[in-house]
Amino acid sequence: MAFIDCHFFSDTLGISSSMYVILPQAAQGQIGMDAVGRNGRHPVLFLLHGLSDDHTIWMRRTSIERYAASLGLAVVMPNVHRSFYTDMAQGGRYFTFVSEELPALARSFFPLAEEAERTFVAGLSMGGYGAMKLALTRPDRFGAAASLSGALDAEDCARTLLVPEETARIFGSADAVPGSGSDLFHLASRLAASGGPRPKLYQCCGTEDFLYGSNIRFRDHCRTLGIELTYEEEPGTHEWGYWDRKIQSVLGWLPL
Q: Which InterPro entries does the record cross-reference, listed alphabetically (predicted)?
């Protein structure tokens, strides 16, 4: 695999930004790596970070490069700060950035697939929310999405996880979340009623995780709507040992 620390300017955010990128390389001499290369454009996973982290965290806390090597899969890890993957009420347009500008820029820099069936998104905690939000909002652009211990109930997070000042910056208020583009329950209902394409969805959470209850609510909501969702749970808390294991499950589940 090739590892690229990419710095670029975002017109959407009006600031310089960063992403980590790993690309397939069919090298023969890398010890302990079963590397697979591809001709043409690579299938791509946009891999999202959580609230207290940044774009470096998946490379620092897991073996994502080693796991992706045998799949011929490119992985793009962007930085969105504490934005909750939203066009913030008082801040940057981070959802527009990650849904529109970032994929276009990444594809202009690197040989990445453009078809929805070869474009995937996953994330942990706040990034699990971002992954589901991207797939439910733009099902025409993502073939599959995975949430690991996702902060899937944005209204609950706005009321209990974030301090009031941060809730105001991100969402405007907790009362503004229900029925909006930040409400995954609303987005799932809209997708179910649309009759349009439905990406594959995967969700997992540890049973001792403080976000377990909201994960169960989202799972049950999707099932009630008839949205196909692969759900897994096991003993675990909100920690990197669990996510290092489960990202391997996600990679095995992706329709590569």
A: AB_hydrolase_fold (IPR029058), Esterase-like (IPR000801), Mycobacterial_A85_antigen (IPR050583)
Q: Are 83 and 21 in contact (CB under 8 A)?
A: no
Domains of the chain with bracketed CATH: 2-247 (3.40.50.1820)
Euclidean distance between CA atoms 170 and 154, whole angstroms: 11
* Residues 154 and 177: beta-carbon distance below 8 Å: yes
- The three state secondary structure string of 41-96 is CECEEEEECCCCCCCCHHHHHCCHHHHHHCCCCEEEEECCCCCCCCECCCCCEHHH
Class of residue 131 by CB neighbours under 10 A (exposed 0-12, middle 13-18, buried 19+): buried
Q: Alpha-carbon distance 128 to 190, whole Å?
A: 19
Q: How far is residue 167's CA from residue 86's CA, in Å, rounded to a whole number?
A: 11
pLDDT at 40: 87
How many Cα atoms occupy the beta-carbon half-sphere of 36 within 13 Å? 12
Structure tokens at 166: 């941060």
Q: Which amino acid is present at 153?
A: D
**Counting every residue, how long is the chain?**
256
Q: Up-side HSE of residue 52: CA atoms within 13 Å toward CB? A: 5
Report the C-alpha gap between 190 and 123 in whole angstroms: 22
- Name residue, tokens 């897991």: 62
Of 226 and 37, the structure prediction assigns the larger pLDDT to 226
CA distance 54 to 69: 22
The residues that bridge with 17 in the sheet, in sequence order, are 8
Check pLDDT > 90 for residue 34. no
